[in-house]
């Protein structure tokens, strides 16, 4: 794990190499706007922005929206760690004013934390609800990517 941001010239080289070798490359960035983020966004076909339905996340996502708009790259929001509460629906309405929102919510489930510790995906566990959420989210992303 890096303890510092990558050098911009190294990121450009890495992104170019990845684009030449792979059909799909997923880059997980921090929830901030480091200097190199514009470079990663510029190489993207789609940016998926996870947002928790909380006032803090809704305030903080503005910088990410500005960055993807500046990069002129398609994006969508995915609500994550969602409770079954009115705040989830309200967050979706707020986000929809800025872009498309995935029609599936990723609930707050213990299995997501557990699989993070084991290196598994939830589709490899017995948590059928989590597996269905991820499959539906992936289907939505594939639909956007495939036009």
UniProtKB/TrEMBL annotation:
Residues 9-61 form the AAA domain. InterPro entries: AAA_dom, DNA_Partitioning_ATPase, P-loop_NTPase. Transmembrane segments: none annotated. It comes from the Bacteria. PANTHER family: COBQ_COBB_MIND_PARA NUCLEOTIDE BINDING DOMAIN-CONTAINING PROTEIN, P-LOOP CONTAINING NUCLEOSIDE TRIPHOSPHATE HYDROLASE. This is CobQ/CobB/MinD/ParA nucleotide binding domain-containing protein.
